Each structure stands twice: as structure tokens, then as C-alpha cells.
Amino acid sequence: MFVFLDESLRKHSRSGVTFGVLSGVAIPEDTYHTFQRDFYHLCRPYYGKAMEAEGEIKGSKILSKMTFRILEKEGFCYRWNLCMEALQFARSKKLTVFGVVCFREGLSSFICGSDNNLEPTYRYLFERVDLYMKRHFPTKFAKLIFDNRDHSAHECNSRAITNFFTRHTVGLGYDSIIRMPMFAVSQGHNYGLQLADLITTVIGLRFQGENRARPLWNIVYDMLAMEKIGSTVQSSLKVMKDRRGIGDISAKKKDSAARKPMTEP
Questions:
Q1: Which of 36, 42, 85, 217 suits a disulfide with 206, CB 3.0-4.6 Å?
Q2: Half-sphere exposure of residue 134: CA atoms within 13 angstroms, side-chain side
Q3: Rounded to an integer, what is the distance from CA 237 to the centroid of its chain?
Q4: Which residues does 75 contact at the CB level (< 8 Å), separation at least 6?
């Protein structure tokens, strides 16, 4: 199982609090070639309209403020339609979304500060991936593929992640995950990472307070895995509130129809 991951740093529109999103999508290896082909054909009609020919879907660009302005003014936008079609396609393939939304100061950059101390953001992510794999694909393994960042970030994170999987008692228990992170670039036709980028952008917009992204969020929400653990249900999207409770979107939303992932107790 390929688990493509991307990250984004954002600022909440009302509180001004900076938060980070690390999220992505799991795609079975045995269907990945078909996924690539179908996703390519999905994008082609949008060449020259929502994206450059043979270009890259970049969430921050395709879901910019201009996209929402055009949609509100004209009621139609090629970029918006491409996002909707891409996410609907992913949902139709029953792909699963994993992620962490972190409002805690000092942890939202997703850069490990020590080789021997994996950040809790990554631990929460790996915990969810491991549980999902063991329950739904017990004979398969997850391969973590992170989008390209600067070399120093890759080096710090790679050492911390590998040490966690090979030396830490908890990490050794996550044996459904290949104990070596992989890094790739989303340019070209790496549609797994491009989809992860789009999903990360949508999650970021949702927790940023951008209500205009709600239709896209609802599709992403449908792709979250809800696992029952004892008497509770754990979402594959972990929300780490700060000490003031910022990050609990349910506390400020009166719309009872608004669907949301579980937040940290």
C-alpha cells in the first residue's frame, strides 16, 4: 500500500493561530498503474483551463482566493471543477485519507528536532496507518512516501522515523509499515503526491475557517477511516488542539449539519 503524504503550514482566519497539516492518501499498489492512467485522463480536459499541459496539480494554486472569487462571481470555475472531479474520483476508488492537524506551538512544522525523539505528530499518523493496515490489509505493508522538502528536513525526519521504527518499543509494534520512509517529487505525473497535496490543501482550508471549501471537505471526510476501539471511534485524521482549545472546530460551529472528524479529548 502506497501512503502518499504532504504538509502545509497555515494560519487560522479568526484567531490568527498558525497550524500545520500533514496528510495524504493510501492507494493500493496493485491498482496504482490503473489509478495513474485514469487520473491522467481526468486531468487532460483541464489542460490550458485549470492547469498547464502536462503540469502539476498544486493545491495552494488551484484553490487560491481567486478560484473562490471566480466561482462566486460566475458560478463556474475550471479549477474548482477539477478539484471536485479529482476528489470524487478518489472517493469512488474507495481510497483512504490519513492525517494530523496540529495547533500546538512548536510541533506544526513537522520537522523532527532529534534523531532519537520522533515528534508526536508522526506517532499519531503512524498509529492510524498501522491500525488501518492490520484491520483491512493484514497481509500487506504500507510504504510511506513524503513529498519533497529541503534536504535538511528530509535528513532529520528520515533519521527520527527510522530510529523510531527500529529502536522504539512502540515503533517496533507498527510492523505493518515498511521501516524506511521514502521521498519523491510531485512534478510530472506523480498523481499520488498531487492528490495528497490537494487533500492537504482542502483539510487546511477547512480548519482555517474557509467555509467555501465545505463541498470539497465533505468528500475528503467521506474518505476518512473510522475505527472502533473499545467504546470509542478513532478517526484517521488526528486533530491536536493547543492548550487553549484552539483547533476544536466543533466548539465554534453551530451548523448541526457540519460533519467533522473527532478531535483529541
A1: 217
A2: 12
A3: 8
A4: none
Place of cell 492510524: 128
Write the pLDDT tens digit of every residue in 239-248. Answer: 998 766 666 6
The H or E element containing residue 10 is: strand 2-11
Tell me, what's the pLDDT at 252? 40
Which residue type occupies 157? N
Q: Which residues of the chain have pLDDT under 70?
A: 243-265
In our burial notation (b when 16+ CB lie closer than 10 A, e otherwise), range 51-80 reads: beeebbbbbebbbeeebbebeeeeeebbbb
> Do 179 and 186 touch, CB atoms closer than 8 A?
no
Inter-CA distances, 238 with 4, 128, 221, 226, Å: 17, 9, 12, 11
Contact between 173 and 72 (Cβ < 8 Å) = no
Which residues are bridge partners to 51 per DSSP? Answer: 47
Give the 3-state secondary structure of residue 165: helix
In DSSP terms, 22 is beta-bridged to: 7, 100
pTM: 0.89
Provide φ and ψ at 100, rounded to 5°: -135, 130
Where are the domains positioned within the chain?
2-251
